[in-house]
Amino acid sequence: MINLFKTYNPLNAVWLAVLLIVLRIGYLFNAPSEIQFLFVEPFARLLIPVDYEFALSPFLNIFLAGLLVFLQALWFNRLVNSFNLMGRPSFLPALMYVVLTALFAPFLILSAPLICNFLVIGMLYRLLATYKMPDAKSVAYDMGMVVALGTLIYLPFIFMFLVVWAALIVFRPFSWREWVAAIIGFATIFFFLAVIYYLTDRLPDFEKIWLPLASKFPAHIQINSYNYLVLIPVAVILLLCFLKVSQLFFRSYVQTRKSFQLLLVLTVIAGLSFYTKKEFHLEHFLLCAVPLAVFFSYYFLYATSKWFYEGLFVLLTAGIIYFQFNTF
User: Which UniProt keywords apply (predicted)?
Assistant: First the structure.
């Protein structure tokens, strides 16, 4: 399977769709009768005043989620190959993204983090391109607006603002105008939201939007212990990936090295931003799927022991399917 996706062949999109279905079909047997789907934060419902929590059947919900993942995987694969992050074109980024977005059952349904991944991929397109731009103020302003829009969908997305600033640090010489442009872009969206709150006599509630940002970071996370088992091959692949990156890091182009630094920052920020939600949900970590898919792809593309990396991939996919049929 890995060797098939190491080549950049458009026909691999068909095999990608087949794998996507295989990795999700097991969940249909254990899916709940109702699946809640909230595509905006409560404070943004003034913009979309409709009742949508249980609008879709479980099958349609899972089908649409799979379709979104497939489109994101193709777009993400094009991003990685366009900026030559792997050193040579392949379909591995799309493959790894599809696999990572199937790790846990909450990943398989429509959710705000899944929708926000479109914004994450779009942001990476613009931020990686700033390396060769003479001026990036317009990009910084646009990225500030994108972060604000993502925040309306999913509050923890606000921390992607730090990713925008990290990109300016990594790719650009310091310019305070670019940093301020990002702030202005973010403020523009919330200015209009504040106006709507004012016109509906709810301006005092506007301050409550930011209260979750002051929440204490949790001391522990409750997760089904069986879910840890599927993370074992994930941890092994991630460790091998960083070992491979460390071996080839300084042989890569400067832009590639800087891109990997930004992806590492994105992974950390996306992973730690879950604490702003009162209730912990695993689907939050879908925000980490994009950067982790790049790291995973890098390992599998340059791994040399075929029996080992193919076996490791089979173990990962088999574990995902097994835990979909066994909910314990």
Answer: Membrane, Transmembrane, Transmembrane helix
Contacts of 91 (CB under 8 A, 6+ apart): 5, 6, 7, 8, 9, 12, 13, 16, 77
Please say whether the dihedral angle defined by the alpha carbons of residues 98, 99, 101 and 105, taken in this order, is positive or negative. positive
CA atoms within 13 Å, Cβ hemisphere of 133: 16
3-state secondary structure (DSSP) of residue 53 = coil
Which amino acid, 303? A
Helix (H, G, I), strand (E, B) or coil at 327: coil
CA–CA dist 56, 46 (Å, integer): 22
Q: What is the dihedral of CA 37, 41, 44, 46, to 10 degrees?
A: 50
Q: Report the pLDDT value the prediction gives residue 73, as an integer from 0 to 100.
A: 95
139 CB-near residues (< 8 Å, 6+ apart):
126, 127, 129, 130, 133
The residues, any chain, with a CB within 8 Å of residue 44's CB and separated by 6 or more, are 152, 153, 193
- pLDDT score recorded for residue 144: 93
What is the secondary structure of 231-253 as a DSSP string?
HHHHHHHHHHHHHHHHHHGGGS-
Please give the pLDDT value at position 134. Answer: 83
Q: How far apart are CA 63 and CA 57, in angstroms?
A: 10
Please tell me the pTM assigned to this model. 0.91
As a dihedral over the C-alpha atoms of residue 96, residue 102, residue 106, residue 110, rounded to 10 degrees, the angle is: 80
**Which one-letter amino acid corresponds to residue 215?**
S
